[in-house]
Amino acid sequence: MVTPYRIALLAFPGIRAFDVSVITEVWGTDRTDRGAPAFDLRRVATDTTTPVPMRGGMALLPDRTLTWLSRADLIVVPGLDDHLTPAPTPVLDALRRAHARGTTIAALCGGAFTLAQAGLLDGRRAITHWNLIDLLRAHHPQVTVVPDALFIEDHNIWTAAGTAAGIDLCLHLVRRSHGAEAAATIARSMVTAPFRTGTQAQFIEHPTPRTDRDADTLAAVREHALRHLHEPLTVADLAAHAGMSARSFARHFTAETGTTPLRWLLDQRIAAAQKLLERTDLPMPEVARRAGFGSEVTMRQHFASRLATSPRAYRAAFSTTPASVSETAGSSPIAR
């Protein structure tokens, strides 16, 4: 019998109810009937007899003490209602011990302040909500605060930007440990995107544009690209489809999505290849062709740089019941 992946939701007074809900929705809902893996989510606090108060009259009842962290595969720290809330000393000590053991630790939104209190972000890169970046820098100058990511990792410590980026990080951690299909299954259940590309720059307050014509045009271009990933698309091709110059298209695209057209296209190709590797037994050259990489060598290079693995190792780790080539035949890379 396979031991379920063990996740610890670290709880102490002041944590945000929204982040607790996100963590619980991703890992605390049984979706094994839909092919998702089994998870063992525990609510961990200094003791199990006292409910942890949260804003709005809500409370969280812990079911494990801090000693359970030694068994966890992943520890997730929710954000805070007051971002300067001091975490209890036993919590900070437990986080330090867990990191020393090599346990993966993730913080959502203002949870980065908790990790910084523990000293785990000293000399490391981290992210938080764009509106809290200056506060994190001011109170923890030893942290290298990255201003425009949705989430980042440094030495097995993950941090995420505000609110919805916590969902992005949680789904990414599922994808990292259990594959793209498992993350997609959970995302579909939550009615959210399996992954978003770009940075939080796209969400920082800006003057409202006069028209949404460009946004509608770019959405149509992205849809066109997803339907033709198997073709050798270029930024010039996408710009022509949008009826813009390449320079104007790149500027509008980056402003809307927080990433460049080329990087977005590469993200989509990698996602398509992941699904093909998980769902089919197609040979590697055919996977590369359908995902739009052109060659197995190119696909392998991008997997190495973006996923730190090879396509063959990814298939070995995450392949589900193979589908025949005939079942996945067609011009589109894979049903999305």
From TrEMBL:
The keyword NADP appears for this protein: no
InterPro entries in UniProt: Class_I_gatase-like, DJ-1/PfpI, Homeodomain-like_sf, HTH_AraC, INH-QAR
Pfam families given in the database record: DJ-1_PfpI, HTH_18
Keywords: Transcription, Transcription regulation
Leader sequence segment: none
Positions of the HTH araC/xylS-type domain: 219-317
Protein name: Helix-turn-helix domain-containing protein
Organism name: Streptomyces cylindrosporus
